[in-house]
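Suppose you are handed only these lines of text.
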Amino acid sequence: MDRPIYIREAAELVTLAGSSERPLTGAKMGELNTIEDGSVWIEDGIIQAVDRDAVIREKYGSRLEDAREVDARGRLVTPGLVDPHTHLVFAGSREAEFDMRLKGRSYMDIMAAGGGIHATTRATQHASKEQLIEESTRRLDRFLLQGVTTLEAKSGYGLSLMHELKQLEAAQELDGQHPIDLVSTFMGAHAIPVDRREQPDRFVDEVIHEMIPEVARRKLAEFNDVFCEKGVFTPEQSRRILEAGLEHGLLPKIHADEIEPYGGAELAASLNAVSADHLLKVSDEGIAAMAEAGVIAVLLPGTAFFLMTDTADGRRLIDAGVPVALSTDCNPGSSPTVSLSLMMNLGCLRMGMTPAEVLTAVTINAAHAIRRADRIGSLEVGKQADLVIHDVADHRGLQYHFGSNHTHTVIKKGTVVVEAGSRIHHP
Ligand SMILES: N=CN[C@@H](CCC(=O)O)C(=O)O
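From them, the structure of the protein bound to N-(iminomethyl)-L-glutamic acid can be written out as follows.
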């Protein structure tokens, strides 16, 4: 049996305890439940105790010598960070499009001309599963070094049954190989393939009748996502696809109101979707409907930053009672980043969120957005021991000192996987 781990005496220990039932909304998003001089006791990959250091020492005094002590004095300890929206598994690069965009060509225009998602689809279709795994592992390693311990990964660069399955199988193997836990989303409805544009509904039928049943049968995904956007999938097509997913046990998520207001948030609410993501152009009605239905807003500030557009209004959503999570949207074209820490900075600097709200958005609310809040997202007895020790004294320091990676130590399921900022490889 592994030695117990004793995380010793953090200057600030953010627990987010008591929020596993439902995502935090409104003022609650700013209540982190912190412990000063807090310590954690871990055994068998599970949190056994979270308390002030004096209480932990009293309780485990006789066993302190057996335990591996991880010194957190002077540092901040938080739950492992959760990234609830990525397009992790892909091949190729779209750097050539960067020049075009900098000269004023729009993201959707490039896509309409056969680039964008279509360019990545061509590269991904040509890649072997092994190649996808190798390229994605490099990205996962960088995520881990930034304190991300769980991440959602979408398919959507296959756009045919064979290649969608290949992407999802790659994600499944990565989940088994890498310390980061992956949660898979099927996104066959990411774009209408270039050669199917004349008959979009036939492609929708293929997604509904061929892809969804097979993905569900092979248990390759838990969620089903659609790019509901003018020029991609209409709200009606999106509804059909998401309802078909539900019939096969795949829970709905939506890329909603990213480029234009299009009724995506309203659709998400009417389906009781787990999340509606992007929301740069969400309507007042859409926000009210999401708040009423409890749909989580997964906001992706890296996309607005990289596409040089206005950001989603995090403040407005929180004030309206919508639970908010933040994510990198890691993908090759609109947000080529693995830096959740930069997203946290942007959450404060561009979205009107407080440092505490931002931390909630990348821990417990992000865990809710992938239906994992019963296991991760907070530091509570009985939860999986996923923790990060940050090289700052309190949570505001994470957001204040922007552009730096403050991750010092990462513990995944009770194993130290990053120490003093470097990856530890276990045999
Ligand atoms: N907007 C649609 N899908 C992705 C971008 C995919 C890409 O450009 O490759 C997103 O979430 O931003």
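What can we learn from it? The radius of gyration is 21 Å. The chain has a mean pLDDT of 97.
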